[in-house]
Design goal:
alpha+beta, GlnD_Uridyltrans_N, 4-stranded mixed sheet, 15 helices, Four Helix Bundle (Hemerythrin (Met), subunit A), 8% strand, DUF294_put_nucleoTrafse_sb-bd, 2 domains, globular, Beta Polymerase, domain 2, Signal transduction protein, [protein-PII] uridylyltransferase activity
Length: 357
């Protein structure tokens, strides 16, 4: 089944016709079951694209159901245009079948009482609805239920500017989260204006670039001095490997950093790499791409638990997988790329900090 055909799949199409959270949850589970059958039968990037099409459609339908619930609760229709947006892996079109919520709202115009009266309960209701459908609430509270991630466009513009100028760890972390923003539902124009506001002054600001680099360079060791893969020594995952934070996240962070440096607006890591390849003088991008795809493939194949049709995973590659010589070799090759990129970032950071003394 080609990607174009996936949009015609009956289980995928049924998501849009769900009229309640229960129906939406059931449609998601049915679609998810088909996707699990396709895992490893098609290229990883194609499979991920289908998974994220499903997530997008679930989110779009959830917003529409939430609007209907708001009417039933006596709040009426939205008082103005708004945009429902996503961040994190969803923003990068890299969400797994067990990813949690990372979302927000952009509300048209200046803040006023009528907007607060509607969008505060709307944000809470939508986050609860998504949780009911199977998306766990974000531990970091990056959700439309939270005032920080639910703002009018002028408020967002001021907040983004504050984050760009403060340069401390926490505001830069929020800025990096925001850099993966993607429009899902509502006013596309609001999302475009948000993007314009975000990118203004990012690539040309050397101190901001250094602060972003400082946040990006954090990375736990995954290879020992002999180049051997460092697995977990104790606990539930003893003998396993944390593929999310060992390979996937470091490469996401590195590619994001380069993209922000070069003013690239894409949010998908693979699309960012495509854009970077046009600027690549040292032919490094293809190696990063292969390492990233290895990380993606291993991540979506980590052991998972199914409860009432919904999945959860620790993102640890099982020790049994690492006993396979080919799998271990591919992981090690990816980690060598990660280590190389990390050392490059460290050199860049030292150089940038010396220039700013």
């Amino acid at each position: 089944m080609e990607t174009a055909d996936w949009s015609k799949n009956k289980d995928y199409m049924s998501i849009a016709t769900a009229g309640s959270p229960t129906e939406l949850r059931q449609s998601r589970i049915a679609c998810q079951s088909i996707l699990l059958e396709q895992l490893n039968l098609i290229p990883t990037q194609v499979w991920m694209f289908r998974v994220n099409l499903m997530h997008d459609r679930v989110a779009q339908t959830a917003v529409q159901i939430c609007e209907a619930q708001m009417k039933e609760a006596g709040y009426g229709s939205p008082p103005c245009a708004y945009s429902f947006i996503v961040f994190g892996s969803a923003g990068r079109r890299e969400a797994t079948l067990w990813s949690d919520q990372d979302n927000g709202l952009i509300i048209e115009g200046d803040p006023d009482e009528s907007k607060t009266h509607y969008f505060e309960p709307f944000g809470n209701m939508l986050s609860d609805l998504l949780s009911e459908v199977g998306y766990e609430k974000c531990e970091g509270k990056v959700m439309c239920s939270e005032p920080m991630w639910r703002k009018t466009l002028p408020e967002w513009e001021r907040q983004l500017q504050d984050w760009r100028t403060q340069l401390a760890w926490e505001p830069i972390r929020y800025l990096l989260i925001s850099s993966d923003m993607r429009h899902i539902f509502g006013s596309d124009d609001l999302s475009k204006k948000w993007k314009e506001s975000f990118h203004s002054g990012v690539s040309s600001n050397e101190r901001l670039s250094t602060a972003i680099l400082r946040n990006t360079v954090r990375h736990k060791a995954t290879l020992n001095l002999l180049g051997q893969v460092l697995t977990e020594r104790f606990g539930d995952h003893a003998g396993g490997f944390d593929i999310k934070y060992g390979v996937y996240i470091p490469l996401v962070n590195y590619v994001r950093h380069l993209s922000l440096q070069h003013g690239i607006w894409e949010t998908s890591t693979l699309q960012r790499l495509e854009a970077l390849q046009l600027l690549d003088e040292n032919n490094l991008v293809e190696g990063i791409r292969e390492a990233f795809l290895t990380g993606l493939r291993m991540r979506v194949n980590t052991p998972y638990i199914s409860q009432d049709g919904l999945l959860s995973s620790s993102d640890y590659v099982a020790d049994t997988v690492l006993k396979n010589k080919q799998q271990l070799s591919e992981l090690r090759d990816s980690l060598l790329i990660v280590r190389r990129m990390h050392r490059t970032l460290q050199r860049q950071l030292r150089s940038a900090e010396r220039r700013q003394l």
